[in-house]
Automatic annotation (TrEMBL):
It comes from Amphiprion ocellaris. Residues 298-471 form the 3-hydroxyacyl-CoA dehydrogenase NAD binding domain. Its main location: other. GO terms for molecular function: (3S)-3-hydroxyacyl-CoA dehydrogenase (NAD+) activity; delta(3)-delta(2)-enoyl-CoA isomerase activity; enoyl-CoA hydratase activity; NAD+ binding. CDD domains: crotonase-like. Pathway: Lipid metabolism; fatty acid beta-oxidation. It comes from the Eukaryota. The gene is EHHADH. This is Peroxisomal bifunctional enzyme.
């Protein structure tokens, strides 16, 4: 609702009340209309202030209403009514003014913001554009280049930046509503002609075409197939070239296209999925709302390689005390320098001082005796990790949580090295660990709910989106990646090139195709895992392992020392070791031809559809297996992992959402087709849960959990 009160006798105060973020639901919109009408009709009222309850101005349109039948007054006429008011209307912005919230403020005649407030038009991140006249008013207020930046990126700006840009008129460190009331009284009675943004001409640009061409090129490059950023540029162009009313019409047309696109649905699903993963549950019945985390004030990181350094930075930046341990003195010195550099650069960006004093460095593992939680981040080698866990068990005080940063090793095996396996969980960080948003929190069969809750809470404290998953080879992310990569390799055997496979996957929207990604991560990583799994055995038939089809192509490249970017060659060639520019490699092409000849394989023409379907559907099929086994609690967990950790295009929601969009029947049919063609590839065999979902009439993704529950209860 929107509550109307009178303060200081002559000020009408409208307070938006719709927790948690005062979103502009139908009731709130109606409340604003009624309140404005009332205030304008009261002769004693000289001016109006609009604010939000609980220190939050407004988080924008109510996203939960999207896709439902529209009720209540639409936003644009509401904002026009405010702008047309004959009495000054001042927005008192505390906390947030986002999307429709900022558009509401732009409809007001003045804007006063608290110094800690954040403002922005993040609609693009939901697959939309600021279609409550935001795309038309903002360029008129702050000029085209700045408006393009804000609208196409959706970034939030601080109150200080908003003041500099001209979005707000005043910033206060004190009570914002009081400041807004005082301000409103000071301008009451003054002409409002120069305060109605819709009447402003858009500031002229001599190089208008060049500015829009450059903007379009920039968004196309970054968008990876997303259409909203492009529509945002088109809408701002309308503001710059058309009268306001016509610009609004264009904004409306563009919005209609976006609103009905699957991309907006995918991005809105992704928004809620990222919040839903915080409400985790385990097959044992333990849940986020019944498991209390322990507060972590002091943590230790063991092993200061690339991952350990990033984790240390993340913890220190979040204000924790960190003991950073590296047993090799030389590496300890190098790590100290590197971590300090990362902290200094990060602090400079945020305009704060670097939290260097939060970290104490040591070469002695015994110095971790008083910490609340340890994150072991040594080399990905089970024997080494076990040794560290045994040492930790001897030196840590009772009750210390022991976490391992691993991308796939058995958490339970590691937990068995300690007398308190219930305190052990996996924390799978993604490189660079201080930047990447995703954290897989991996519980073993003996991990306590409190250990999981504590790791999830710590993830939140350091700014991660944490997803709780069960313990299995590769957990969720890497386990699903395995059949995807296998298919990519099989396609090479059958006639494709790495360039073609990557092109198809990149056109789909991945930041990098399978082969460019493998070159970046290092081919030796997978080689080591395959060796440990007993798959790289000399003398075995080259293309079969344990009765299943196997491609040794990656192993053969590793045997040649081609580990990817770091060695200057892998699936591609690079100018020098460490270079990032991948070039097609004639050597690799001849190597593939020789390989096919040696194995009697005849190269055939492979099209886009086959590459996409085999790579993606095998990955999706593994996702269904993961759901069936209860390793992930729901499809949202898998989708968040893929969007945040594996560059799955956000505008496609994630692999499980994509399966829902494509249609489960279609996915099942194509898997059956490919499995018939490749009966020796088990990952193409449609899994039970997928069949059950199709048999239950392919319910929409938000109802999959019901079917999953039934499958689990039958086990
Ligand atoms: C005609 C169509 C016009 C569209 C114009 C628009 O306005 S589109 C919407 C534009 N607004 C946004 O994109 C803001 C989205 N929200 C956020 O970025 C963040 O939630 C926040 C406001 C910065 C707050 O972040 P914080 O980390 O503090 O909390 P959460 O993100 O966890 O959110 C708390 C709960 O609030 C729900 N929520 C947030 N925004 C909205 C919204 N606009 N509508 C409805 N609900 C919203 C969010 O889902 C959380 O609830 P859960 O139950 O946990 O999901």
């Amino acid at each position: 609702m929107a509550q109307y009160t009178r303060i200081s006798g002559s000020v009408g105060l409208i307070t938006l009340k719709n927790p948690p973020v005062n979103a502009l639901s139908a009731v709130v919109r109606q409340g604003i209309v009624d309140s404005v009408e009332r205030a304008l009709g009261e002769p004693e009222v000289k001016c109006l202030v609009i604010c939000g309850q609980s220190g939050k101005f407004c988080g924008g349109a109510d996203i939960r209403e999207f896709g439902k039948k529209m009720t209540g007054p639409p936003l644009i006429p509401v904002f026009h009514a405010i702008e047309a008011a004959a009495k000054p209307v001042v927005a008192a912005i505390e906390g947030i003014a986002l999307g429709g919230g900022l558009e509401l403020a732009l409809g007001c005649h003045y804007r006063i913001a608290h110094s800690k407030a954040k403002l922005g038009l993040p609609e693009v991140t939901l697959g939309l554009l600021p279609a409550a006249a935001g795309s038309q008013r903002l360029p008129r207020l702050i000029g085209v280049p700045a408006a393009l930046d804000l609208i196409t990126t959706g970034r939030h700006v601080t109150a200080a930046e908003a003041l500099q840009l001209g979005i707000v008129d005043q910033v206060t460190d004190h009570n914002t509503v009081d400041a807004a009331v005082k301000f409103a009284l000071s301008v009451a009675g003054q002409s409002l002609d120069a305060r109605r943004i819709s009447t402003f001409p858009c500031p002229r640009l001599s190089n208008l075409d060049a500015v829009f061409e450059a903007a379009m090129q920039k968004v196309r490059q970054a968008a990876r197939g997303a259409i909203a950023p492009i529509a945002c540029v088109q809408a701002v162009r309308a503001a710059a070239t058309l009268p306001y009313a016509q610009g609004l019409e264009r904004e409306k047309e563009l919005m209609a296209t976006l609103f009905t696109s699957g991309q907006a649905r995918a991005l809105q699903y992704s928004f809620f999925a990222q919040r839903a993963v915080g409400r985790w549950s385990m097959p044992s019945g333990a849940r986020w709302d019944t498991s209390k985390p322990k507060p972590i004030r002091k943590a230790a990181v063991i092993g200061l390689g690339t991952m350990g350094r990033g984790i240390t930075v993340g913890l220190a930046q979040a204000g924790l005390s960190v003991v950073a341990v590296e047993t090799q003195e030389k590496q300890l010195m190098e790590a100290k320098q590197a971590v300090s550099g990362m902290l200094e650069r990060g602090a400079k960006k945020r305009g704060v001082s670097p939290p260097l004093g939060n970290i104490s460095y040591s070469s002695n593992i015994k110095t971790v005796g008083d910490v609340d939680l340890v994150i072991e981040a040594v080399f990905e080698d089970m024997a080494l990790k076990k040794e560290v866990f045994q040492q930790l068990s001897a030196v840590c005080r009772p009750g210390t949580f022991l976490c391992t940063n691993t991308s796939g090793l058995d958490i339970d095996d590691l937990a068995s090295q300690t007398p308190n396996p219930e305190l052990v969980v996996g924390m799978h960080f993604f490189a660079p660990a201080h930047v990447m948003k995703l954290l897989e929190v991996v519980y073993g069969p003996r991990s306590s709910p409190q250990a999981v809750a504590t790791a999830m809470q710590l993830g939140k404290v350091i700014g991660k989106v944490s997803v709780a998953v069960g313990n299995c080879q590769g957990f969720v992310g890497n386990r699903m990646l395995s059949p995807y990569l296998s298919q990519a390799n099989f396609l090479l055997e059958e006639g494709a090139t790495p360039e073609f496979v990557d092109q198809v996957l990149e056109e789909f929207g991945f930041a990098m195709g399978a082969f460019r990604m493998s070159d970046l991560s290092g081919l030796d990583v997978g080689w080591r895992v395959r060796k440990a799994a007993g798959l790289v055995v000399p003398g075995q038939p080259a293309r079969m392992r344990q009765g299943c089809r196997y491609s040794p192509l990656g192993d053969l490249l590793c045997e040649q020392g081609r580990f990817g970017q770091k060695t200057g060659s892998g699936w591609y060639q690079y100018d020098k070791p460490g270079s990032r520019v991948a070039k097609p490699d004639p050597w690799l092409h001849s190597f593939l031809e020789e390989y096919r000849t040696r194995h009697g394989l005849v190269a055939r023409r492979i099209d886009h559809q086959e590459v996409l379907e085999r790579c993606l559907y095998s990955l999706i099929n593994e996702g269904f297996r993961i759901l069936e086994e209860g390793i992930a609690a729901g499809p949202e967990d898998i989708d968040v992992i893929y969007v945040l950790g594996y560059s799955w295009p956000r505008h496609r929601g994630g692999p499980m959402f994509y399966a829902d969009m494509v249609g489960l029947t279609r996915v099942l049919e194509r898997l059956e087709f490919y499995h018939q063609a490749h009966p020796d590839v088990p990952s193409l065999q449609p899994c039970n849960l997928l069949r059950k979902l199709v048999a239950s009439g392919s319910p929409p993704i938000h109802r999959w959990r019901e079917v999953i529950k039934k499958v689990h209860s039958q086990l």
